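Q: I have two molecules that I believe assemble together. Could you output structure tokens for the complex as a whole instead of separate predictions?
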Amino acid sequence: MNATHKPIATGSDWNFSILERFDAELARLADEYRLDTYPNQIEVITTEQMMDAYASVGMPVGYHHWSFGKQFLAVEQAYKRGQMGLAYELVINSNPCIAYLMEENTLMMQVLVMAHACYGHNSFFKGNYLFRTWTDAESIVDYLVFARHYIAKCEERHGVQAVEQLLDACHALQNYGVDRYKRPSPISAEEEAKRQDEREAYLQTQVNLLWRTIPDSPEGGESLPGSLSPEEDDPLGLHSGGRYPPEPQENLLYFVEKNAPLLAPWQREIVRIVRKLAQYFYPQRQTQVMNEGWACFWHYTLMNRLYDDGNVDEGLMLEFLQSHAAVINQPAFDSPYYSGINPYALGFAIFMDIKRICEAPTDEDRQWFPDIAGSPWRETLEFAMRNFKDESFIQQFLSPKVMRDHKLFLVVDDDQEETLEVAAIHNEQGYRRVRDALATQYALSVREPNIQVVEAAIRGDRSLTLHHVQDSRRPLARSVYPVIRHLQKLWGFPVHLISMEEGRVTRRYRWPVEESAQSEE
Amino acid sequence: MTYFIDRRPNAKHKSAVNRQRFLERYRKHIKRSVEEAVNRRSITDMERGEKVSIPTKDISEPVFQHGPGGAREIVSPGNKEFLAGDKIQRPPGQGGGSGAGEGSASNQGEGTDEFAFTLSREEFLEFVFDGLELPHLQRKPLKSLQEIKMVRAGLARDGVPARISITRSMREAYARRIAMRAPIKRALREAQQALETEERKDPVLRNPARITELKAEIERLEKRIEAVPFIDTYDLRYHQLAAQPQPSSQAVMFCVMDVSGSMTQNHKDIAKRFFLLLYLFLEKHYEKVELVFVRHHTAAREVSEEEFFYSRETGGTIVSSALTLVKKIIDKRYPPEQWNLYVAQASDGDNWDDDSNVCRDLLIKQLMPQLQYYAYVEITPHDHQSLWQEYETVAARFPEQFAMRQIIDAGDIYPVFRELFKRRLSQQH
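A: Yes, here they are, computed for all two components at once.
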């Protein structure tokens, strides 16, 4: 500790000028480490406001829906019972980056949250390729405002209940409202509002074209719907035969928005809003370990620097270490506190380990990570942060040492076997197997069932057919029925869902349920 | 670059709408819980919220998920003694393992069976009194100044500068400018035309004097147009406020109870619960509710709440003494045109035989015309006596305002209360 330096503040009380001085110091350090961040907007809020923010998944403005109310009640209950420490951090991927500080936190917590959220998460949002590609930090807040107003307007015009039912249906499908491989066009509230009427009309003509059944060539007289297709009438080639859509569609909500026969224009717009927001949150779901690991790495590094430079005293540092240790604690699988792998712990361990491999590589590291062993750590970390998601990050950077430290082991649970089998553990033979399995565990494509639209019967009964590509005989949970019921409401005609494994049909679901099928359930 | 913003003074209850939506959606479930709670709790205990739980499956938000079954691989931390190839017995009661990798989905999935949350006191009472309504709810106007509300009432020509209506003032000014300029403009046009005709004439025929005259006239008129003021005090309009009397938001509730020897403490407890329910209910409808406790045996007295419920007396019963006292108190302190008056009476039905018809006459002639509502509960498992029969005639005369029910034990209170105050749609019109 630098003895000549006086700490910026001691004790647990804080005020705005103290926070500003800490922020200035953190900003200086972040600059020294070349952390590239959006400007920060730090908002000091009350407990209740924090619960509000939690309930609306951190969106600073959200539209109204009962599910957010349920979320609020759950958070409130947990908080009142003391089951949950509120708000270690809550930060919004926007420009400026909005972070919340809760008024009743101690000084240490405020500084920690600033380091974690305003410099850790913030730089992750700005740097990681998924966020760069899929989200638009500039316009998200405006878009949320637009969405809120639009939905409120719909409630006024069409009734709260109609809007609520529609939102229920959209929420059920929102994980399937994202484009996984195609970059979406950026969202902008202004543009949205401006183009909206135009789009409503346009969308409707598209849909009408698709579902048109009355021939419109007067001289042809008897021509059938399937056979008429002058180029200019059918630019999409929808009626030129073959199945529609020609390729399976993974974005169910997009497909519904563009093709559902009976939706009114305002309903399509709401489907679009839910889809856009799902898309916005999509990168967060794919970078949990990395995002938290990165933020923990930086709060740890920055707090230690504050201490080394004499800006905080031992008391604050001890309080910090206790809090930090709680956050990155990983209970063992057989502990009563175990609730899955702690993304903070895993991410922090991997980032710390990358730094170690760069600075003090062992022979094992040289063998496993020839590219990065001994390289400058700051560049390597930056590279890892920018170019990966959880799945590939674990595959690439989970080292044998971290697996040993966490004592990771792999269990195979096959319902055709009587016992579970330990397939691999943290040893020379098992490292690769464990790492592969853990990476897969974080792949969204594996975590969520793979379901796509394969056919809309545009010339038949207008039913919609989906395929579920099953893997390792893992069936769909029973929630499939309410979900396809929601989908059926959106689509307006019967919905079929077929589970397939290796080309074989394993199970069929449909809504409305057929008489004979009901007994089966 | 960092900005600090203090959001603490900002609007609270941002989630209030969502919370209400949730409560509305699960109304049926919550009502069931609340009704159970009401039956379980003592009525004195109504002043707090209630924990309500709803089966999770009823409120889940379904998404496509993997179900149990099939083969899956799970990576877990904290290995102690396992080696590759070890076989482990399945943990009991766990179908196929819930899978560690399901992330946040498992928090709300099949994990817990009940979704529990706490209703606030207001929300709780809302559900307790759901579907109930004060019969004959007629708010009385109040003359005193406190109950007057200032409301916007059109525009006036004078007022204080702070209340100027700018748009209206400008509109007036515009109208005045048009009106004042029109005749001048007309004259100007005529003068210009005359000048033009004059100038078009053959130079010989021109009248130079006339031309000079016209030119002077035009100049004068133009000046006059310019002189019309852009805005004048005459144009100003002010928002006007008018005093509007507000419907009375105060009520007084008379609790009348028999404390003669035949009333046991048990009877009194039952009566107390009934009074409390009524009080809470009135409190929801009126900003201010005053309580007057009148107890009686052969003579009536106004007493404090404590004394009302807990001191014991003996002796005979003359109900009319209490009614006379209520009437006196009303006349003295609660003029009916300013107060909404409610009387709740509890008794075991005993009365002096000669007194019951006195009560009837008192009620019909003097009290009932002034009251909003009179609720009588008779706490007795026995047959009715003369008081009940006389009251029945009162009820026949004032079917909207007079209600009577029999209560046998504490469990009846809430149902009876609900019955007394349930929304009577059919009778309303």
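A: One point stands out. Residues 161-240 of chain B form one domain.
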